[in-house]
Amino acid sequence: MANVDVAEQKLKIILAEVRSDICSVESEEDAKVKIINRIFNECLGWSFTQFSCENQHDSGYSDYVLKVRGEPSLVVEAKRIGILGIETAVLDKHREFKISGSSLKGSFAGIQQAFSYASEAGIPIAVVTDGVRWIVFKTWVKGSYKDKEAFVFPSLEALENSFSIFYELLAYEQFSGKVYNLLFDDIHNSRQNLSVPLKAALESDEIKILPKSPIAFDLEKIFNGFFTQLTGDQNAEIMTECFVESNESRIADYSLEKITTTVLNNLPKNNKIGSELSDLIHGNVHAQLPADSDMSVFIVGPTGSGKTTYIERFFSKILPSGTRDSCLAVNINALDATGEEAVTTAWITEAIIASLENKLFSEGFPEYTDLLGMYFGTYKRMASGYLKKIYESDRDAFDQKFSEFLEGEVKDNREGYLSNLLHFAVHNRKKLPIIIVDNTDEFTLDFKVKVFQLCNAYRRQVKYCMLMFPVTDKSAWSFSKTDIFTIHQSRSFFLPTPSPREVFRKRIDYLNRKLVTADVAEKREYLTSKGIRIELKDVSRFAQVLEDVFVENNFTAKTLGELTNYNIRSIMNLSKRVITSPVMRIEDLITSYVTTEPISYTKFIDALVRGDYEAYRTGTGDDFGIISIFKVYSEKVYSPLLALRILALLRAIRTSGRDVDERHIAVHSAIHYFEALGVDLVHVQKCLADMVSVRLIEPYDPSVSVLSDNQKLAITYKGLAHYDLATRNSVYFYQMALTTALSDPEAANNIAFYYKSNRPFGEITAHVRKRFSDYLLHEDAKFVSSGHQREQFDCQVELLRDIKAFAVDRNGGGGAVPDNITSFLGEKLVGEVERYDPEKDYGFVHVKELGQQVYFKLANVESEGIDSLYDSDIVYCTLSQGDKGVVVKSIVGFVGELNDLKIEPCEVKFYNPKKGYGFAIIGSTSNEAFFHKTAFPYNFYEHLKEGLHFEAEVRLKKDGKYQIRRSIGLG
Fold first, then answer.
1. Global pTM value
2. Is CB count within 10 Å lower at the N or C end of the chain?
3. Backbone CA torsion sign across 9, 10, 13, 15
4. At the fourth CATH level, which superfamily is domain 822-897?
5. Fold topology of 245-494
6. pLDDT digits (tens, 9 = 90+) for 565-583
7. pLDDT tens digits, one per residue of 605-621
């Protein structure tokens, strides 16, 4: 039975009792106790703990303030029966009356009193009632609340006959979900309903599949196979082999290896078994351990940074084989949990037990002799203690009692059994248990806290046990504020999101070395449109074509990364869509490789948006990341720019925010922001929910599915990409103009007419963009006011300016650089050198304005007195447009205040010659500084070894870690 049905039955019971005793309801207190309290509590589901009575306000004392999640949300003003006057001939159902109208004239004093309490406390809804008559009205409205309508229930019969409305207005479950906004929206707003269905210039059934050439069909098979391999789903080795290393990941490798080795060196060394097993179990418990914080480790990184892959790679590739063999990795995937917090501890216990049993015992479970070893200490205590007489007189009876004890421990005391399993792993098998709990980000903070507390409890019992928690930066931020985090010390290592460009580079190189992309038995020969003859057997080796599109061009891989929120699998699927699109023309890609003619960014976006079709088309079953940001989802007309306006606000907040917290905004703050622009609250809420569902924005806490007022939101990478496309990219804007359903049929028909005309293509696209731009701005002006001059609305002004700019011919583009980047070309910018190799003379400069690394060769750039560069140098540079994207035009000097260097004596503590990096101790301190071999002259690489003394320029980076810039001499 639905909640509303249960509530209705309870209301009938309450009203039957009220009617039989109505004569005794004389005072206001009688009305509260006998009717109002019971309806709110028994029928509408409000707990008495949510009631706050006789609250003081400047204008007096309110009878009730009801709270939702601790926040005052509803004012109730109670009156004595007979005080409220409602003038209506219809008494048996609810009515909608204007508050200042004649029907509510006799109740206006009570309404005004309730409004004064609610408006003073910032409460959105108020109720005036004597238990029999109920008036419900909204206090947060545009204009005067007196000019708006209230929901009025003039009798007990009206409550019964219109109970579904009453329930949706005031039931706790509905009220906390703000259903009342939808109800009041219907009676307060006289906006025009859509008189005709929304119409697109091109409907989906008109958009045809583009024909493909013969070579494209065969090559699509090759690229399909290639991308399947590139994703790595069927090849676990590619995930670990092609992990994109960073300075941060190398530091984490080094630190974790050091911690693990230290713990293993302190494992109990007693190897005796059999009769002395109890000594083995107790072990050398006094061995010195590393700091407590080293035993709980957080691997922190944004979504897409490869935390899980990093951990798998660490155990399979980084740890020396001897150390690795002494570790017992217990992998727990939180996605296997139900999420029911009441059974969290039992679930995590069972998951660890199952993994340990599978790894420790050949049969997947302990045999009796194993259990005897695990509980040998208890066996000895029982034999020497309270069961000594039975042990000495009847060994079989003693063994039976011990077997019954074991049965009880294994079946009923699962936490104790797990503790013994962990001790068995350490003291008997000489293994270091490492419990790895992954994928907790989607669960509530309470779930995370319980898992963290439970794992630490087991760790403290066993002592020789490590914990690892891969989490996102948002989870780490919120978790760090909990009490449990401060109680249990821990270490954190940060992994940045790898550049998709580097992911492509490493995976393509890997497959070129180890895999065959396709095998086509039949030999075929094709002649491209440019007269180049290609044999299919040769094409299967043309993985370099992918490098040309996704690696050599600065922006294509970045765009793919943002549109998929840096999900590697989605990046690969989206890349396959681009490569196999008839828009891109595979034979042109091959020609591009042969002739070295670059593929333009414009063509890349066109292929990305259109795929296999002649225009952008939704509903094809493909989740390819592109969304029409101008789509209107409501049954009523509202601004087609509302979603983009929300992105503009969140984008500005992201830019100005100094930390994770400040880059989010509460839902109620976003609503108030747009209410100041005259936007209806209901549409903002609807738009926010829709944008969360398609991951243009994301909640601070992903475990909360309902967007409450206090939930915080931030723009995602996908949202940023769509904002850039919608405001700066002519191809995207043109395609959305053709296929977005419009509320103005005349505009849709005009766009369709020009699209299907025989005019030159440039003239068609210019007209379509102008007509769509005019439509968007005209519709937006109907529903959003623009008279605000305050600074926080600057982002909205900029948005409108960008949309208006599409009315100007933008056909001059088409190069390898997106429209929104061209404004930075030629300007003096600040960049940070990343991964520069002086021997090969190539590296990358990261420029904040681009959010992107830019490739350079020092010999090819203009420089003023700069003959050498090193990792992390902060420089002034200018950029220009090259054939395949942005290139560094000049490096014009160092940013002095950001290159804080000190000369220090150093000693190499660790060096990995295969990977070319290491760590050195700085002077007489215990501080360790990271270095790459390129900090030394390349003819000195072979002399790098542990114990080497040298002098170097050392910098303290923004993350608080030291780095060696370059050596300046041997010590």
1. 0.71
2. N
3. negative
4. Nucleic acid-binding proteins (2.40.50.140)
5. Rossmann fold (3.40.50)
6. 887 778 877 887 887 788 8
7. 898 899 889 999 875 54
